[in-house]
Design a protein that fits this description.
Helix content: 25-40%
Oligomer: single chain
Bound molecules: zinc ion
Largest sheet: 2 strands, parallel
Order of helices and strands: HEHEHH
Number of domains: 2
């Protein structure tokens, strides 16, 4: 699964989000890293989020907090939360392959399918 690592991706995306938050006068950005990412993605680990948050609080005249409510939560539990909120997962996308339909084979698809299976429901997304 290391082939899905995009070097420095989350530092870049968080920097953009923080800059945008400052422009909106928002004091918080939400970051969706979860516990299943820690082994593979260095920029999803708690130590990265902690240090990035430290920088975000001092990088501008306006402090912006990086809020990561799912940092230590599994994708299975995140799905449980989303289902309890009534989210329509037919409108969500997880696959790393940019095709018309999700591949069902990449790491992200596999984790998504496992989360649905463990929650005892069928994924509403169409797969190849
Ligand atoms: Zn996929």
């Amino acid at each position: 699964m290391k082939q899905t690592v995009v070097p420095n991706r989350n530092m870049i995306l968080l920097s953009l989000a923080i800059g945008y938050a400052v422009s909106l006068e928002a004091n918080k950005v939400y970051y969706g890293a979860h516990s299943g990412d820690h082994a593979i993605y260095p920029d999803c680990r708690p130590e990265f989020v902690e240090k990035m948050n430290d920088v975000s609080l001092i990088a501008n005249y306006e402090a912006v907090e990086i809020y990561s409510p799912y940092l230590n939560v599994s994708k299975i539990e995140i799905l449980t939360d989303g289902l309890s909120l009534g989210l329509d997962y037919a409108d969500t996308w997880t696959c790393y392959n940019g095709r018309e339909k999700a591949c069902g084979k990449c790491g992200a698809c596999q984790e998504r399918l496992e989360a649905f299976e463990k929650n005892g429901i069928e994924d509403p997304l169409a797969y190849e």
